[in-house]
Amino acid sequence: AMTGKFHLFYLNAPSESYATGAHHQAATVGYGVTKDFLEIEWGAHDVLRADPQGWDNTSIWTGDVLRIGKGFWMFYTSRDHHRDDGFTQAIGVARADQIDARHWQRISRLPLEVNSPDYEPRGIQGDLSVHAWRDPFLFRWGGDTYMLLSAKAAGRPLGRNGAVAWLKACDPQLNQWQPLPPLVVPGHYSEMEVPQVYRRPDGRLALLFSTTAALDFTPESPHQGGIYAMAAEGFEGFAHQVPRNILPASSGLYACRAIPELAGELIGFDLATGGIRRSGIQTHLQSLDKDFSDIFLEVPE
Q1: Each residue's pLDDT tens digit, 182-228
Q2: Cα 215–Cα 216–Cα 219 angle in degrees, nearest 5
Q3: What is the pTM of this model?
Q4: How far separated are the first and last CA of the chain, in Å rounded?
Q5: What is the CATH number of the domain that holds 102?
Q6: What are phi and psi of 68, to 5 degrees?
Q7: Are strands 193-199 and 205-211 parallel, antiparallel or unpaired?
């Protein structure tokens, strides 16, 4: 949020592609502006789209937009349809001088791929969902920069291997990342999508993630799906906590984010109608440090 307005980046695809699931293959990043998420001024639907000649030649999936130095950087998810089964994911970076830029320019660096024995590097035959190395969420903590990702833990039972990966930046240019052991692997989910971390009013940390009902195997309430939350004193504590459902899939919303400027209200995709909808559920979660405006990043030509 800046100047009383929220700058909104969202995935979108032709509506006719949704019924067949083809929207996953056609998604682009769109831009909009809103004061309240009730009325949205929609801008271009494709400020970042797949590059037919690049490694990201399929579609663009969830990312994170940050103010870095004097410009803005977008960490995003994509895939190369020539590689493996076409669903092996990696993280790319694009930038713009202005947040409302019509086109974001890719930064020519190698995509961030799985580089750790802790995580599955590609999809596994017989698994219940595709490979996961997506949905980057960056923040600063204790003088370092970290990234969360939706991932699959290696060596875990198929269908129960959904994990939240976390990585630590090794250099000020955010070019090299050290994968750390999974932040959490509950063993109940095939996917832990769109992970985010916030600060709770009591000072503890809160981890949020989404999972579909079909891939939710929580022992107490299987196939509930939706948004889950975990609380811990520090990052190492999440591994010992049990996720709690705070917005079931029956709400019709998915991939919600908490909006700290709106009392932490959960806002997400409306699966029935498309578009973005407020949930009315206020979490009162507060943002961690996501301001990188004090650092200067070199832009490779």
Answers
A1: 999 999 999 999 999 999 999 999 999 999 999 999 998 999 999 99
A2: 140
A3: 0.96
A4: 30
A5: 2.115.10.20
A6: -125, 120
A7: antiparallel
